[in-house]
Every structure is written in structure tokens, then in C-alpha cells.
Specification:
By secondary structure, the chain is α+β, with helices and mostly antiparallel strands. The chain has helices at 49-59, 76-85, 96-102, 109-117, 144-155, 159-162; strands at residues 2-7, 14-19, 22-28, 94-95, 130-131. Pfam families: DNA_binding_1, Methyltransf_1N.
């Protein structure tokens, strides 16, 4: 059973989707690879209390790591990339090539990029922290402007918050 709700955020409205009560999607307006709205199930804010609370803490600079159960559905390679994204620390970036090497597939930077672009739970699974080999911002499903906004936001978080 799927359900969804929409919440406001500093990067615009976010659509949260749960499958059997577990977060399975976080989509931005006009996001590339966003599933059809009809696939999100009925509107119901019930399953999202903890998700909303943790997102509010993140945007208030009181949370640097999310602690939520996730229902990430994709190919085994996509799920491996998404799991690797969860290890990229707040306020840091990694290149597609570095992420590919960490997965033991150093020649798979493009495949990592494709899997990164299909991440169904943006922000919480921090695909915005992946950059090009020269540090440049490459594509982002939520748009490069949002990627820059999220990276700048994390970079401006005081060190005292990061150490707690």
C-alpha cells in the first residue's frame, strides 16, 4: 500500500512517498525521473511524522545524519550506489569516479552517475553530494540550482553542529 504527502522546504515542495509505511520516495518539483503522481497512492500524512521531523531538523541545521527506515527499490547495482551515498559525510562531496572505485568498479563512473540520477529518496540519500571529477556540478535530478543550494547549505553549517 502506498501513500504520499507534500511538505514545504527551503528547496521547494517535497513529495514524500511511503510503501507499507516505510519511506520509498522523496521527490522535488520538476524532478527528472519523478514517477507519475498517480503511482504515489492516496494523500495521507500519517506515515511521515518522523520523516518530516528529521527533514525539519536537517533544514534547521540540527541534523546531519538521517536515521530512517528506507524502502529503496532498484537494481542490485543501483541499491549498492544508493547505499554508498549514505556513507558520504554531511558537508563533503565525492566524485562519480571515487564512488565507483569505492564500489570496486573504478571504470563505472557513468553507471554510478546513472544510478545516482535514479535515487528515489533525494536529500536523505544524499545524491547531491556527488560531483564531477574536477569538482564541478554535473546533472542533478532536482536541478543543478537545487544541488548548489543544498551543497552551499551544508557548507555553511557551523562546525559545532557537525561534531554533535
Amino acid at each position: 500500500m502506498r501513500a504520499h504527502t507534500e511538505v514545504d522546504s527551503p528547496v521547494g515542495p517535497l513529495t514524500l512517498v511511503a510503501t507499507d509505511g516505510v519511506l520509498s520516495g522523496l521527490y522535488m518539483t520538476d524532478q527528472r525521473h519523478r514517477p507519475a503522481q498517480e503511482s504515489f497512492g492516496p494523500a495521507d500524512a500519517g506515515p511521515f511524522g518522523e520523516v518530516v521531523e528529521q527533514l525539519e531538523e536537517y533544514f534547521a541545521r540540527r541534523r546531519t545524519v538521517f536515521d530512517l527506515p528506507l524502502d529503496l527499490r532498484g537494481t542490485p547495482f543501483q541499491r549498492a550506489v544508493w547505499s554508498a551515498l549514505l556513507t558520504v559525510p554531511y558537508g563533503r562531496t565525492v566524485s562519480y569516479g571515487e564512488l565507483a572505485a569505492a564500489l570496486g568498479r573504478p571504470a563505472a563512473a557513468r553507471a554510478v552517475g546513472a544510478a545516482n540520477g535514479r535515487n528515489p529518496v533525494g536529500i536523505i540519500v544524499p545524491c547531491h553530494r556527488v560531483v564531477g571529477s574536477t569538482g564541478g556540478l554535473t546533472g542533478y535530478g532536482g536541478g543543478v540550482d537545487r544541488k548548489r543550494q543544498l551543497l552551499d547549505f551544508e557548507a555553511q553549517t557551523p562546525t559545532s553542529v557537525l561534531s554533535t
